[in-house]
Design goal:
The structure is a single chain. By secondary structure, the chain is mainly alpha-helical. It has a domain of 236 residues. Helix content is 82%, strand content 0%. Helix 1 packs across helix 20 and helix 13 runs parallel beside helix 15. The longest helix is centred in the middle third of the chain and has 35 residues. The radius of gyration is 23 Å and the shape is globular.
């Protein structure tokens, strides 16, 4: 059922992301880059402090996956998570008050300030929702983990389109986010009621704290790298420039869902396999995943890189011309993240969180140097393009470190089979990108026909060269098997043994 867990995790995220992209395109076209930028700034301002509530989730997953008493794990984690949410609220309230009343530093507009307040309330509720998501992920029950979030996002994306057509802008869109979180809360609570909570366990509490220190350092660094680049972009330029990047990321970052989805599945799985010293199974899972993404995902990524210019202009209009280059760079950056993700989960699965701290601190140093030269007007001043390049640099650096360390501490074998397929697709991409201006001159809508032709050409070459074998086709058909997915979901929700 591993494939079905991945399909469900990725499929639910991909489906809601596509819905979000469609809704985002409408919002971007109707509201404009300034509104998109204000929302992106508010999200970054709140989320950069999200590490406070992210300290105990990884430990919770690891403890449950190792077979610790579920009821006691739930109660202990619940108290820890509640305390972290209260600290998060106090810290954000203190920072906002200090900035406004003591530093006398105001936001770009009152709209920006109100958006931050609304998103803060929504963020707190989302952390409550995340309790169920983390728990069911640890139990490898992806249907239960995803259900409340899917309902929330479907409502949010549908209503925000209506809101923007009614003339509401940033504040209205932020309010819809808050309402969506409130509506999902009863669903999450209903699923949690099926679990049998135990007692607060001091031993589990100490184990949580043991994991919490390295995780604290990891999530702090990740929060800085994930959100400070957007704040710095707004500082060095403006929120409109941030809107260009956000529009590019909302579309180009869709493939990052694969990395996130598999990460949620691989971490508890690898933790269990490594505890049993089953390195053969670990290597087989990594090899199957990387072969799949090299053959079926990378050609689609490169196809979008080639047709990126007419694709972006058609979707969100000429006013988003500055989003085109960031979009293409982000596609490549997300694919890099996808390939290296399993090696990071090897380190986490072994419980070597301090090694992950070292990796993230090195990446942070690379980030600081890179973002300074890429965004600072006194140097390169590349704006939205700069933070897209920065993301690509960070993902490359992180992958190199993941590879080096996972090979040193684990019994990992290198998957050389993906090198030639990746090189072949990359060479074809560079050739077609060179001739893109010529294709634009022939026919304005060439890109619609080009996509299927390019993918068919790649797969034909893969077949001739022996890269695409019966096993790969079988894996794809297995992943696309709706009956198996339906059976998995039904079995999971019918399982009453949640103790």
């Amino acid at each position: 059922m591993l494939k079905q867990r991945f399909v469900l995790q990725f499929g639910s995220q991909f489906g809601t992301r596509i819905l979000g992209i469609l809704a985002g395109l409408i919002v971007a076209r109707v509201a404009g880059p300034e509104v998109v930028g204000v929302l992106a700034f508010g999200t970054a301002y709140i989320s950069i402090w999200g590490f406070i509530t992210g300290l105990f989730g990884t430990g919770h997953i690891k403890l449950i996956s190792e077979g610790k008493h579920l009821g006691n794990c739930l109660t202990t984690y619940a108290w820890l998570q509640l305390a972290s949410i209260l600290v998060f609220l106090l810290v954000l309230s203190g920072i906002l008050s200090y900035q406004k009343f003591f530093l006398d530093h105001y936001f770009e507009s009152t709209t920006q300030e109100y958006v931050i307040y609304i998103l803060l309330a929504a963020n707190v509720i989302d952390h409550v929702l995340n309790f169920g998501n983390i728990t069911f992920t640890a139990k490898l029950e992806q249907a239960k983990a995803n259900f409340p979030l899917v309902v929330k996002l479907v409502f949010f994306h549908g209503v925000r389109v209506l809101i923007v057509f009614l003339g509401f802008k940033a504040i209205g869109l932020a309010t819809v986010n808050l309402i969506s979180s409130l509506l999902a809360l009863p669903l999450a609570w209903r699923l949690l009621q099926r679990l049998k909570f135990g007692k607060f366990d001091r031993k589990l509490f100490k184990e949580h704290l043991h994991y919490a220190l390295p995780i604290f350092l990891i999530v702090v660094v990740n929060s800085i790298m994930e959100y400070s680049d957007k704040l710095l972009l707004a500082y060095y330029s403006n929120t409109t420039e941030l809107g260009y990047y956000s529009a590019a990321f909302s579309i180009g970052g869709v493939f990052l869902l694969i990395s996130n989805s598999v990460s949620w599945v691989f971490f508890p799985l690898f933790s269990s396999l490594i505890a049993n010293e089953d390195w053969a199974a670990v290597n087989q899972k990594i090899r199957s995943f990387q072969n799949f993404v090299a053959i079926f995902i990378f050609p689609m990524v490169c196809c979008l890189v080639i047709i990126g210019t007419p694709f972006i202009i058609t979707l969100i209009g000429d006013k988003y011309q500055p989003s085109i280059i960031p979009f293409k760079i982000l596609l490549l950056a997300t694919y890099v993240a996808i390939l290296g993700m399993p090696y990071g989960e090897i380190i986490n699965g072994m419980g070597r969180f301090y090694l992950n701290v070292v990796i993230n601190l090195i990446c942070l140093a690379v980030f600081v140097i890179s973002i300074f030269f890429l965004l600072n007007p006194d140097y390169l001043g590349l704006g939205a393009v700069g933070i897209a390049i920065n993301l690509l640099i960070i993902n490359l650096a992180r992958n190199i470190l993941y590879l080096i360390i996972s090979f040193r501490i684990g019994k990992i074998t290198l998957n050389r089979g993906i090198v030639l397929p990746n090189v072949l697709v990359l060479v074809l991409t560079l050739i077609f990108m060179y001739y893109e201006p010529t294709l634009n001159g022939w026919w304005a809508w060439w890109w619609l026909a080009f996509g299927p032709v390019f993918v068919a050409m790649v797969y034909f070459l893969f077949y001739l060269l022996g890269f695409m074998k019966e096993k790969e086709i079988h894996n794809l058909l297995d992943i696309l098997n709706v009956k198996k997915l339906k059976s998995y979901i039904i079995n999971e929700f019918n399982d009453r043994e949640d103790s």
